[in-house]
Amino acid sequence: MHPLKSRRPSLALALLLILCACPTHSxxxxxxxxxxxxxxQLADRVATIPNLHRPLHLQFFQDPNFAxxxxxxxxxxxxxxxATRHIxxxxxxxxxxLRVGVAExxxxxxxxxxxxxxxxxxxxxxxxxxxxxxxxxxxxxxIRIERQLVYQSPGRILDASxxxxxSEAGMVLxxxxxxxxxxxRLDAAEQPAQTISLPPAAMAPSRDPRGELIVRGNxxxxxxxxxxxxxxxxxxxxxKCHASKPMWRAPTVLSPPCSTVGWKLLDNSxxxxxxxxxxxxxxxxxxxxxxxxxxxxxxxxVAINGAxxxxxxxxxxxxxxxxNYEVYKITLACGN
Length: 336
Description:
By secondary structure, the chain is mainly beta. The protein has two domains: about 10-140, no CATH class; about 145-335, no CATH class. Helices cover about 10% and strands about 40% of the residues. The chain contains four helices and 20 strands. The strands form five sheets. It has a four-stranded mixed β-sheet with strand order 1-2-3-4, sandwiched between helices. The protein has a four-stranded antiparallel β-sheet with strand order 5-20-19-18, with no helix packed on it. The protein is elongated and about 85 Å long. About 30% of the residues are buried.
């Protein structure tokens, strides 16, 4: 689990927020389009900007990883396409600047052009589904989030883990009530199968208790703010807790079947009183600003646990409308 904190949105996310209000190009499923074709369409849209009779100074921006796949020939193609539409250019940086860029998301390729005209900024966008974009190898394959509500309870849930046996459905919950904590095993029908109560001293009083759960075969460990408790399903009475300073888990990384890149799950809340957005980002420092998947949750994220399964994670959220604690199964699927 990670402390909840705010994060500055990337350029790609900012573009997506703008795109929500902009018309998009959506070719039929069987259509394909090359980058050169897209550049020609962008040139058509740029030519609709009023008062482009003066020379312009071109500035380009492009994600370096995407550039490695597509190159920069499209920039020369755009210059030629604009020139044929009677738009001229100047090397003087004091001339009016036309900014043109290519960005990518897990589902779209985004081309945009912007120019300051009088007191307003004129912007033209072209978005293309990645599945229709004709490039031999794209930096990020089309990925989407699939979310399933698998459990909910009015009681406080601190963490949830899949069971250790991949063939056995069900999950394990770390729950808290007042100053006590328990480990609860659920069967495939999400019905209680076994409960282990932790010693009363394991849970220090707190308005916002935290906890983590690790299940290993027949045994497990519960990490609480001041105690670590080791338990066994076969000998529940032998549960022991000792003082420790827990090391909170690293971000959960999922591996979808169609991607060699792992995807990291992060929350974005700054407090416990506002809904969260689950962010899914490529697990590579050079890719973090170029692509992101988002899914809204009905409240703050309490825990993200993917320790038992590299293809799925369990996310615990506190529903601010109902007051329930909800467990969602998050998987990454291939395609738009």
